[in-house]
Every structure is written in structure tokens, then in C-alpha cells.
Amino acid sequence: AQRVTQPEKLLSVFKGAPVELKCNYSYSGSPELFWYVQYSRQRLQLLLRHISRESIKGFTADLNKGETSFHLKKPFAQEEDSAMYYCALSRTGRRALTFGSGTRLQVQP
Amino acid sequence: EAGVAQSPRYKIIEKRQSVAFWCNPISGHATLYWYQQILGQGPKLLIQFQNNGVVDDSQLPKDRFSAERLKGVDSTLKIQPAKLEDSAVYLCASSLVGQRTDTQYFGPGTRLTVL
């Protein structure tokens, strides 16, 4: 069975500091990895997906199959980045997502 | 474009009562998902529909939970009878065709409290 682990429940940084939200997964096949974000009083929404190799709002994430990780990074945190971040995986032939338990990012002024 | 709609937004019931949630996906989206999110956890898939057929209901507690998607559009999720451990946010999501890389669009959720 697949599993997504986000080891940190809370990550607190100061504005302008680098951010790294950790995500590790276990899955024997070829996964699709995603980061979803939920801002205060808003819906859960897609931030980025590994297959697109894109940078959204300054965030990037690289899939490391050797370490089975998909960490989310941003070089300079902004206060508006404060939110709940979920790492998610979809399996080969499946569309539904398996989510991690989430990391709350607090960016302090 | 209107997003995924869900109602009610909040529901409080006593254990052993029944409850139903409604979801209206984004127009044209063939795939619909129901997730359960217990406090402190990530969303967990309960059931996935492709049009009006069930694709995956392996994690749906079928002794008390049921769901349907008549005409391949709206969907309802029912719990009967409810237990204390069913207290959670129930999220509905939809995607265009259900490809693995599709974006899933989430509704605002229904927060259920079982007393």
C-alpha cells in the first residue's frame, strides 16, 4: 500500500528565510506527486505537480526517486505563504489521491 | 467558472442518527470524489465516481456509508447510523476526465459533528 509522510506538523520561519517542507512517500510503482495548499478560510487547491516541473508562487519541488522524497522549497518565505500544505500521491492507473497529514507553515514578520 | 458546491456547510447530529451531504461538481467534470478529513489528518478517499459509475469504493465503510451519483452530475453521501468517529470534514472534489495528472478541484467541505 502507498503512504505519504509529512514529518513536521508545524514549521515556523521568519519572513525572508528559506523554507523546506518535507514529504516522503512509499510506493512500489511510478507515482505522480502533488502539493496542495489550503489558505485560511479557503478551499484546498493544487499548488504544483512534479510532472510539470514548474515554479508556482516561488515554490519548487523535485521528485527524488532514490530517497522517495518530494520536498517543497522556497528560497525566501513571504507572510502570505502561511497556510496548510499537503503532499499527495496518485498511483499508476489510479486517479484518487493519497494525502499526507499536512504541515502548517507559519511565516512571521 | 463556478467551483464545486457542497451543502450543508455544517451539521451537528447525535450518534445513531442519519445524515446526508450533497455535492455539485464543476460543470463538465466526469470524475467526482468524496474524501473524509478527520481533524489533524489529511483527506482520505471514501469513493470515486466516473460519470455515474463507481471506480473505487474500497475505503468506504459500506455498513453505514452509501453514495450515489445519479445522472452523472450531483452526488449525495449518506451516513446511517452515524458514530462518534464519523466526526470529520467531508470534502467533495471533481476533475475533468480523471487522468492521473488531472487537477482535482475541491469544494468547501461539510463539517460534521457527531455527539
Could you characterize the architecture of this molecule?
The complex is a heterodimer of chains A (109) and B (115). Chain A is globular, with a radius of gyration of 13 Å. Helices cover 0% and strands 43% of the residues of chain A. Chain A is mainly beta and 109 residues long. In chain A, the strands form 3 sheets. In chain A, strands 2, 5, 6, 9, 10 and 11 form a 6-stranded mixed beta sheet that branches. Chain B is mainly beta and 115 residues long. Helices cover 0% and strands 48% of the residues of chain B. Chain B contains no helices and 11 strands. In chain B, strands 2, 4, 5, 6, 9, 10 and 11 form a 7-stranded mixed beta sheet that branches. In chain B, strands 1-3-8-7 form a 4-stranded antiparallel beta sheet, with no helix packed on it. In chain B, strand 5 (44-50) and strand 6 form a beta hairpin. The radius of gyration of chain B is 13 Å and the shape is globular. Chain B starts with a strand and ends with a strand. Chains A and B meet through strand 6, strand 9 and strand 10 of A and strand 5 and strand 10 of B.
For this entry, what is the oligomeric state of its chains?
heterodimer
Mean of residue pLDDT values of chain B: 93
As a percent range, the share of helical residues of chain B equals under 10%
Count of DSSP H/I helices of chain B? 0
Q: Calculate Rg of chain A over CA atoms.
A: 13 Å
Average of per-residue pLDDT values of chain A? 93
- Structural class assignment of chain B: mainly beta
Number of strands of chain A: 11
The H-and-E topology of chain B, N to C, reads as EEEEEEEEEEE
The coarse silhouette of chain A is globular
Helix content of chain A: under 10%
Percent strand of chain A equals 35-45%
| Low-confidence blocks of residues of chain B | none
Q: Biggest sheet of chain B, in brief?
A: 7 strands, mixed
Biggest interface, which chains? A-B, 23 and 27 residues
Q: Determine the number of helices of chain A (DSSP H or I, runs of at least 4 residues).
A: 0
